[in-house]
């Protein structure tokens, strides 16, 4: 079926599982996630979404949202389906459940990039921010994946995702992250300043908006216009596959629902009233009309929030996996 005009979907962010086995200090999920979103995405709904997105130019599916994807024991099955469609597959995990078997199954399924969230540059800081004392275990899981991928002749990459926990010690933290994570595991890394999850009042030690050159100047983050669709595993009123405005609405998922892909098409959701209202608010810079946008620090341009990376081609503002997606610009006609 030909794609409707003016709709482009280059990337799908699909959450496999709304639950998580961590309670990270900086994450709203630590306070308890809304029950409607603590679900697993059924495989038949998953395949429906993938098939619906293909005519719109789908390039990459990223298996992440808020929940931990490796809690789904059949995760490699989802990866295999994506790859069978000729689409790139990425996932974001805390790495705690990367057993040799799961790692081998994911590599065999053809996962392109496995991104590991590792907040904490040593054992003590990791336990503080990630809520569990498994610093060495996760590092060894990552190293095992890197080594196993090499042995299997796989094409998978591992990218480590770190956050600065004390801006006054930024340079020291960069040095420790590089030594204890990237150098130790053989994986590439990116280090960011923290953000405030769509305005959530979480104590981070600093606020990105407070250190911008012009903190009073807001601009659209660009996400409502970007060819990227963010889909949660759960949904409201018994639904699955809620489309939300962006990944930052964690903790406010119910406020950010724009439709449900278990019984709607992508065209239905993108052309629907909630999505249209969101785009109009961003076009007019009426961010206060959208509760999860009003105090979000993503409305401030801060290139230095990407503190350090050795991942080739990685730039501030862009999707981590699709070069054409730049969240700071309006990339689709609407």
Provide a descriptive summary of the structure in words.
There is one protein chain. With 334 residues, the protein is an alpha/beta fold. The protein contains eight helices and ten strands. The protein has helices at 43-53, 75-84, 100-109, 123-130, 135-152, 170-185, 266-270, 273-283; strands at 11-14, 60-63, 88-93, 113-117, 157-163, 188-192, 228-231, 242-244, 257-260, 306-309. It has a ten-stranded mixed sheet. Helix 2 (75-84) packs parallel to helix 3 (100-109) and helix 3 (100-109) packs across helix 5. The longest helix is centred in the middle third of the chain and has 18 residues, at 135-152. The radius of gyration is 19 Å and the shape is globular. The two termini are 21 Å apart.
């Amino acid at each position: 079926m030909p794609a409707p005009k003016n709709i482009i979907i280059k990337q799908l962010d699909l959450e496999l599982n709304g639950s998580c086995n961590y309670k990270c200090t900086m994450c709203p999920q630590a306070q308890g996630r809304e029950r409607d979103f603590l679900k697993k995405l059924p495989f038949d709904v998953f395949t429906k979404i993938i098939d619906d997105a293909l005519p719109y130019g789908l390039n990459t599916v990223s298996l992440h949202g808020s929940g931990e994807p490796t809690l789904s024991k059949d995760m490699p099955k989802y990866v295999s389906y994506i790859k069978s469609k000729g689409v790139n597959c990425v996932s974001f995990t805390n790495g705690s459940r990367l057993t040799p078997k799961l790692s081998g199954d994911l590599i065999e399924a053809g996962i392109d990039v496995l991104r590991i969230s590792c907040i904490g540059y040593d054992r003590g800081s990791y336990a503080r921010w990630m809520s569990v004392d498994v610093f060495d275990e996760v590092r060894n899981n990552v190293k095992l994946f890197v080594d196993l991928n090499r042995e299997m002749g796989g094409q998978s990459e591992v990218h480590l995702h770190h956050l600065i926990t004390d801006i006054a010690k930024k340079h020291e933290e960069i040095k420790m992250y590089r030594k204890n994570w990237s150098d130790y595991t053989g994986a590439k890394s990116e280090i960011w300043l923290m953000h405030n999850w769509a305005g959530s009042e979480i104590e981070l030690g600093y606020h990105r908006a407070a250190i911008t050159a012009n903190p009073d100047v807001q601009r659209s983050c660009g996400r409502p216009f970007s060819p990227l669709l963010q889909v949660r595993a759960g949904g409201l009123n018994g639904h699955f596959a809620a489309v939300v405005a962006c990944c930052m609405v964690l903790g406010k998922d119910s406020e950010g629902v724009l439709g449900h892909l278990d019984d709607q098409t992508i065209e239905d959701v993108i052309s629907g009233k909630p999505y249209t209202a969101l785009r109009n608010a961003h076009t007019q810079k009426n961010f206060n009309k959208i509760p999860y946008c009003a105090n979000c620090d993503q409305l401030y341009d801060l290139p230095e929030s990407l503190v350090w990376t050795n991942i080739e081609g990685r730039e501030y503002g862009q999707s981590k996996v699709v070069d054409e997606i730049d969240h700071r610009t309006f990339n689709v006609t609407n």
